[in-house]
Amino acid sequence: MNGLTTITELLNALTDVEKASFEMQQSIYEQRRAALQASEINGTLLKDLK
Questions:
Q1: Cα 14 vs. chain centroid, distance in angstroms?
Q2: What is the pLDDT tens value at each position of the chain, 50 positions in all?
Q3: How far apart are CA 40 and CA 50, in angstroms?
Q4: CA–centroid distance for 48 within its chain
Q5: Nearest-angstrom CA–CA distance, 5 and 28
Q6: Which pick of 3, 17, 30, 42 has the fewest CB atoms within 10 Å?
Q7: Rounded-to-integer distance, Cα 12 and Cα 17, Å
Q8: Which residues contact residue 48 at a Cβ distance below 8 angstroms, ignoring those fewer than 6 apart?
């Protein structure tokens, strides 16, 4: 090879980056959802939102 990547390798790398970004956003959503549920269970939801 000439030291360059193939289009397939490039597309696979870009797909991996997008997948990692999506998984990070999904994790943030799940964390915030869990925090809201914990506040609701503790009866502090409205106080925590202020």
A1: 16
A2: 578 899 999 999 999 999 999 999 999 999 999 998 888 888 776 676 66
A3: 14
A4: 23
A5: 33
A6: 3
A7: 9
A8: 39
